[in-house]
Design goal:
The protein is built from 26 helices and 22 strands. By secondary structure, it is α+β, with helices and mostly antiparallel strands. Strands 1, 2, 3, 4, 5, 6, 7, 8, 9, 10 and 11 form an eleven-stranded mixed beta sheet that branches. Helix 2 packs antiparallel against helix 22, helix 9 runs parallel beside helix 22 and helix 11 runs antiparallel to helix 13. The protein starts with a helix and ends with a helix.
């Protein structure tokens, strides 16, 4: 019997290859998307699963409250880790984690600047890495020890054995390689190729002694986090942590649930759980479109088999047998689609990794849990897609079908098909709108007025220039391609330099969070900062109208300062502020600038002041404005001069516009992903619509022939066929709009600076869907309208 059913399916597939292939295509694409997202979700939720102690490890967080704002920070005082070791016995182990850059002399003599993770001696008790050489107990027994991964060892030593080798940093400190551990897995919350033991901390715990590092603890086996929290709160009280309250985050949650927490080290791998939900939902919607396509086409094609069903019933076939037959036939589509989808997912896995910027092996895609879940989803989808067509076809009345009359329930069947078309197009329109809005938001972020010009602007990484800063700058400016240079504490995209909370003149109970940028006399010129009021800084005099000397300002504790327009409004300073002293800001105002935004626009940027230092800054970041000509030659010139002045320091640079663009990597990837998903959705939906139109034209061949004989034009026929489907697309637009607006409005709330949900974005999405649908309909309806009516009237 099963063989007979399979042969019937083969015969049915061959008889209507095009529509059967479109049904299969929709299911395959939907299942491929689902499997890719299953692999992605498996990867994202697997973080820290490789550590046996992970359930007992927590990240220490601080909930900080100031007058101006409240936020949660991962930064902890440098002495917190040893203090926890001494005073809270419930903590079995603890370690600080601090990402830093260190320049080493390689064996070849070259200088290599690398990221190094500084940790405490308990690190390997908490995180059980496999040692390929050396062992965990002896690795950090002595100071200045390095533990490398094979990648880190290859980077510094090439093919030379690294264990036991002494490596010199450019500051002349000698480090010994004491161990080689396996490469860190991609699914861990921090990345590191080189581990260094943190030098002993001798200073007492101080609330103000924050650094860029963080602290992790491991509980004793019989202790709870509440016990530790209670004791640590007492510790905070003891050491006068006035504005901070302690909190903890399980280490397993860091990757997906820490996106709103500030001050994580740069080597932390932070994502956001909401994108797991977004991608998962989109994949299921694509599968839903494919399933609806399948149901629609199966029911539409079933009317061609009404007489076959009538004959079967007449010869004694029971309804149960017919249900099993049609369930089996429909299930064959899924049996064929599942392995094809698996093959496509394997082929797409690495491009998909690249698209979403994660590094995962095939193990997350092809492990038994993923395959079982994928197969389960396929079986459930198969049953849901097959059940209605099977029930509908099996209850056809043989007397009516053999006479050629419409089966009972046909009107309900037609209404269901229309509903499915509406839902399909509504989902497609939501995805098109989402694509347009994500594009608009990304363009909005990239085209914001930052208050400075980031084009053709190079920044050299942090360096202690000592007494060579001015000579180095002068040497660079001998090249006509270098227009200007400036030293500053500003680290574009990461930090302004320093921040403080100033008093609010409008409300004494609130504060104003202000960022201070220290720059030299050429800062405004180099970054091309527009000055609204005032003029460029002069070394000898701060402002000619007031003749205030730099020495007199220093005596008052003031600096010549450019102040942002927004800060003027916040401090309620009326009139021309140039020449005024604002002691709450430590500023003597020499100019007013537009709002300066050098950090991510996802968060509200701080009020900014730019303090000008007439004397050279010994350390900081050097900004170099270059002409837009031969960039490669200019970089070679800068590198050559760098090696002359700083032979023991690696030349490390970046372009400011690229730094800023990198802040929005997530949005860029999201844009590409929505492009693909929206395209797939509209492709599946319109291919299904094309098939439905084809089936309808086939059934109305004689009617179309008669209408042509009676004088109907091609446009009349096209309008006759199209109007019903076009109406469904228009209706789907109105169904989609509330859902699209709600979802996208919520997504935009994650941004402090955001585009508007303009009506034209929704109108454009609806117009695109309507245009694509009309093209799909017209392709078949025009050919039907141009067909010879004589041939159609002869057909029987």
């Amino acid at each position: 019997m099963l063989r007979n059913y399979f042969l019937i399916w083969i015969r049915s597939f061959r008889k209507d290859r095009t529509n059967a292939f479109i049904s299969l295509l929709g299911l395959t694409v939907g299942l491929t998307c689902v499997l890719l997202i299953i692999g992605y979700i498996r990867y994202e939720t697997s973080f820290e699963s490789g550590y046996s102690n992970a359930p007992r490890i927590y990240q220490v967080l601080n909930k900080l409250t100031f007058k101006a704002e409240s936020y949660t920070s991962a930064a902890t005082p440098i002495a917190l880790s040893p203090t926890l070791q001494r005073e809270i016995p419930e903590i079995e182990a603890q370690t600080s984690l601090d990402d830093k850059q260190v320049s080493f002399f390689k064996h070849s003599g070259e200088i290599q600047k690398v990221h190094v993770t500084s940790v405490d001696n308990d690190f390997f008790r908490m995180f059980d890495f496999k040692f390929l050489s050396g062992n965990a107990k002896m690795a950090f027994k002595h100071p200045n020890a390095l533990v490398l991964t094979p990648k880190g060892a290859k980077n510094l030593f090439g093919k030379i054995p690294a264990l036991g080798t002494i490596l010199y940093a450019t500051d002349s400190v000698a480090y010994t390689v004491t161990g080689i551990i396996q490469n860190l897995p991609a699914n861990t919350f921090f990345s590191a190729g080189i581990l260094m033991n943190h030098p002993p901390v001798t200073k007492p715990l101080d609330y103000m002694a924050y650094n860029s590092g963080s602290t992790c603890i491991m509980l004793g086996k019989n202790n709870t986090i509440q016990q530790v929290k209670q004791k640590l709160e007492g510790l905070y009280t003891k050491y006068e942590f006035d504005n901070a309250k302690v909190d903890f985050m399980p280490v397993k949650n860091i990757h997906l649930r820490a996106s709103g927490i500030r001050d994580f080290p740069e080597n932390y791998n932070i994502s956001d759980i909401k994108y797991v939900y977004v991608y998962g939902s989109i994949a299921l919607l694509i599968l839903l479109i494919g399933c609806f396509n399948f149901i629609n086409l199966t029911v539409a094609r079933s009317l061609d088999r009404a007489k076959e069903i009538g004959v079967r019933k007449l010869f004694g076939a029971k309804r149960k047998q017919l249900i099993i037959q049609f369930l089996g036939e429909s299930s064959i589509y899924f049996v064929v689609a599942l392995p094809i989808a698996l093959l496509l997912a394997i082929l797409c896995w690495h491009p998909f990794n690249y698209l979403l910027n994660f590094k995962s092996t095939y193990s997350f895609l092809l492990n038994y849990q993923s395959i079982l879940l994928f197969t389960g989803i396929g079986i459930i989808a198969s049953l849901l897609c097959s059940l209605y067509p099977a029930l509908f076809l099996s209850r056809l009345n043989p007397a009516n079908t053999l006479k050629g009359s419409l089966p009972s329930g046909f009107r309900f069947n037609l209404g269901l098909r229309k509903a499915l078309i509406i839902i399909q197009f509504a989902i497609s329109i939501v995805l098109i709108v989402a694509t347009l809005v994500v594009h608009a938001q990304l363009n909005f972020l990239n085209n914001q007025n930052l208050g400075f010009n980031d084009h053709n602007l190079i920044v050299l990484n942090f360096q202690d220039y000592g007494q060579k800063e001015r000579a180095f700058k002068n040497e660079l400016q001998t090249n006509p391609m270098i227009l200007s240079t400036s030293m500053s504490r500003l680290n574009v995209g990461k930090t302004y330099g320093s921040t403080f909370t100033g008093p609010s003149p409008k409300d004494s109970s609130k504060g104003i969070r202000v960022a201070t940028i220290d720059g030299d006399a050429d800062f405004i010129k180099t970054l091309d900062v527009p000055v609204i009021e005032g003029k460029a800084f002069a070394n000898n005099m701060v402002h000619t109208a007031h003749s205030s000397s730099l020495d007199s300002l220093k005596e008052k504790g003031l600096s010549p300062t450019y102040i942002s327009k927004a800060l003027l409004e916040a401090y309620d300073i009326k009139g021309n502020p140039v020449g005024r002293e604002v002691k709450g800001l430590g500023a003597y105002v020499i100019g007013v600038i537009d709002d300066f935004k050098a950090l991510s626009l996802k968060e509200k940027n701080l009020y900014v002041t730019i303090h000008i230092n007439s004397q050279p800054l010994r350390f900081g970041y050097m900004y170099i404005k270059i002409a837009g000509g031969n960039t490669a030659a200019t970089l070679r010139f800068i590198q050559k001069k760098w090696k002359t002045f700083f032979p023991k320091s690696a030349f490390d640079y970046s372009f400011v516009d690229e730094r800023i663009a990198k802040l929005y990597d997530t949005e860029t990837r999201l844009t590409k992903l929505f492009n693909i998903f929206a395209l797939l959705a509209i492709m599946i939906t319109c291919s299904g619509l094309f098939s439905l139109v084809s089936l309808m034209v086939r059934k109305r061949t004689k009617e179309i022939g008669i209408r042509k004989v009676m004088g109907a034009t091609v446009s009349n026929i096209v309008l006759l066929i199209s109007k019903e489907f076009v109406g469904l697309v228009i209706l789907s637009f109105f169904v989609a709009m509330p859902f699209a607006y709600y979802a996208l409005n919520r997504w935009l709330q994650n941004y402090a600076y955001k585009t508007q949900l303009s009506w034209w974005l929704f109108a454009l999405a609806g117009s695109l869907a309507l245009l694509i649908a009309f093209i799909s309909i017209s392709f078949k309806s025009v050919s039907a309208a141009k067909a010879n009516p004589v041939a159609s009237l002869r057909d029987e």
